[in-house]
Write a structure and sequence with these properties.
Residues 32-43 have a biased composition (Low complexity). Residues 1-43 are annotated as: Disordered. This is Colony stimulating factor 3 (Granulocyte) a. Residues 1-12 have a biased composition (Basic residues). InterPro entries: 4_helix_cytokine-like_core, GCSF/MGF. By secondary structure, this protein is mainly alpha-helical. The chain is 65% helix and 0% strand. The protein contains seven helices and no strands. The chain has helices spanning 4-33, 40-62, 71-98, 115-121, 138-159, 167-186, 208-237. The longest helix has 30 residues, at 4-33. It starts with a helix and ends in an 8-residue tail after the last helix.
Length: 245
């Protein structure tokens, strides 16, 4: 028969065992539900991801969106293209009237022996017209068109005092400059900063030969410039925004 003291000791031992099992179960429960403490590496990864997302958001907002040329710009470009086509059509007639020296023709092969005369007569280079790009912006494009048109209007003005047949081309170039100005205004490009080219041609026309060569070179180069204008204006004049018929 078990004594009271032994029974009390056995009960106490059972009670302690039950408390220990309960404590272990509680520790397991806390371990399963407790959120792990982030390590420095995890924090760096999260921070980098947040900064990267912010960078792309700012980049997308600040990226330039290509503007569609307004209808007024396209209309002015179309009228300019029509004028350039007329100038191209009239150049052979003007050349036949102004240039009477044998051997000075509009054939491409006739230009090779006159490069020294370009420098001798002080005829400026024609402004280069390129396709629109990040470096060749619409502002540069319109400015080059304007500068080239003024250049040839000035050259023809000097030569008109010495030869005949150039007055119609001068008038067409004046009208072309008007349309180019309308293109600039429609696209809100601001004022044209290019100045009229400085021409020293009049002082170098010492005789009839220099006059003839100068007229020939001017008309030949004007024709090449107009071909460049036609290619660029055709794209501008036929441009249509998405959804427009």
């Amino acid at each position: 028969m078990e004594t009271p003291a032994r029974a009390h000791k056995k009960s106490k031992t059972a009670s302690n065992g039950s408390e220990q099992r309960s404590a272990r179960a509680h520790r397991r429960t806390n371990t399963d539900t407790e959120t792990p403490t982030p390590t420095p590496t995890d924090m760096n990864t999260v921070t980098a991801a947040a900064l990267l997302g912010l960078f792309f958001a700012v980049f997308v907002q600040s990226a330039p969106v290509p503007a569609e040329p307004p209808a007024a710009f396209r209309e002015a470009a179309e009228r300019a293209k029509t004028l350039v086509e007329k100038i191209l059509k009239d150049i052979p007639t003007a050349h036949a009237a102004a240039v009477t020296t044998e051997g000075l023709t509009l054939d491409a092969g006739a230009q090779t022996n006159l490069q020294m005369m370009v420098k001798t007569l002080g005829i400026p280079d024609t402004p280069v017209i390129k396709q629109l790009s990040q470096s060749f912006t619409l502002d540069v494009y319109v400015s080059r068109m304007s500068a080239g048109s003024r250049l040839y209007q000035g050259l023809l003005g000097v030569l008109s005092d010495r030869v005949i047949g150039l007055s119609d081309l001068r008038s067409d170039l004046r009208d072309l400059l008007t349309q180019i100005t309308k293109m600039r205004e429609a696209a809100q490009l601001g004022a044209d900063t290019d100045q009229n080219p400085s021409l020293d041609l009049a002082s170098r026309l010492h005789g009839n030969y220099e006059v003839q060569v100068a007229a020939h070179l001017t008309l030949s180069r004007l024709r090449s410039f107009c071909h460049d204008l036609i290619r660029s204006l055709r794209a501008a004049a036929t441009y249509r925004p998405a959804g427009e018929v």
